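PROTEIN DATA CARD
Card holder: Alpha/beta hydrolase fold
Chain length: 502
Origin: Actinoalloteichus caeruleus DSM 43889
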Amino acid sequence: MHRPRSAARGVTLTAVLGLATAVAGVPALAGEHGEETAAQVRWGECPDDVPAAPTPLDCATVPVPLDHDDPDGEHIDITISRLASENPDRRRGVLLLNPGGPGGTGLTQPQLLVSQGIPANVLDSYDLIGMDTRGVGHSAPVSCGFTDDDQYHGAIPPYAVDDAAVAEQARIAESVAEKCAANDDEGRLRHLTTANKARDLDRIRAALGEDKASFLGYSYGTALGAAYASMFPERSDRIVLDSNIGDTHLDHDGMRRYGSGMEETFPDFAAWAAARHDSYGLGRTPEEVRATYLTLAERLDETPVGEVDGHLFRLSTFATLYHEQSYGQAAQTWQSLLSRTEAGPEDDRPAPTGTPAPHDNSWSVFLAVTCNDVEWPEDLRTYRRAVAEDRVEYPLFGAATANVMPCAYWREPAGPPVEINDDGPTNVLVVQNQRDPVTPLRGGELLNEEFGERSRLLSVDGSGHGVYVLGGNPCALNVTTRFLVDGTMPERDLTCEAPAAG
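Structure generated from the sequence above:
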């Protein structure tokens, strides 16, 4: 009884929902215009939840205005980390990092990249700068007050089997928006925007004493990096945008691309499972594996097994496609669920206690940034129509990602979204797997088109979410490393083929 539940939940939480003693002596820096004042960061110990080994980091805080339009008003502290270059002769600057989200903590990202084998010449060339962006973790964290008894379970809405399910999700989405507003005691949620995060990046650059900053961002980090390169083109150095959402913000169209991303990426899992049919029994061909998925999802809609219903099954399968390493666990979960034909006992579901949800902070930041960046449709008919269309166009997952978000009931956006600026140096490398469930290839193509001559698209014949260092394509690793270390930008858009098996 417990195995299918824990396996599906484990895949979901780790892949989808994901995300100080140091002081800074930075009085006040100029905003987007005007002369900057001299500033210095004091490095010290990191917060207790940043491991001290095997890769020790320094940490500090940088004060930034809560409202960049009021630079003399309230300030908040942004906590940053540093893995310093140990080769002064080769050091060329700082590489600002963002892991995605919005809402993901980034203080330990330098350690993650080291553990995944980021090349030593990149470590020589840059101080790697991780950070919790505003609202996240150790940087003036915000909370909508989510608890374990809320009917909200992450960024992606539940799969809507019919119009009634859309209406039910609209009720939940509206209550979530109201909950966030009611818990915003300090009035900080409205100031969580991609534009403000980009302004914070420039404050950090200046506080570090750098004329320019390079940037490596994944997933939502591509929106932040694109905004920074657009708002501060002459202060941006070498910008790598990996696994792209398609703009400087996520809107309803961007969420709907998740449905197409799953359709494009699922065949890789289906082929993997079909080759292992004798072990898992999910289908002898990719087509049979797809049919198993659809049959199992519909069965779980009607009769959940424990806490695994059709929504959680679809969501966990979507999360599986982030990394091939998850395929085996997913196949095991499917096999366990297929062997069960009856519902689990009601008391198998843990009773809610009203305790804070472990992902409260990351969910809160995701909603604030996503809903503040751009206006979302408010008419429920728009969502009903989109769900109906995508249930047919993208039957694996489209009726989830087209569904109603709390953004439909959010306050008006704090300002217009950042527009891509194609007037600037050719310094943006757009890196993109051709099959990515959450940020499909089209997102990279859109961003590359908007940047025009400022960017090149490096598309990779690969599957999953995350390419540079996190993926296994040697061509993509080499091209991106050459760009970061030597500044070598491909002369034209480039495709990296899948490595030969062996």
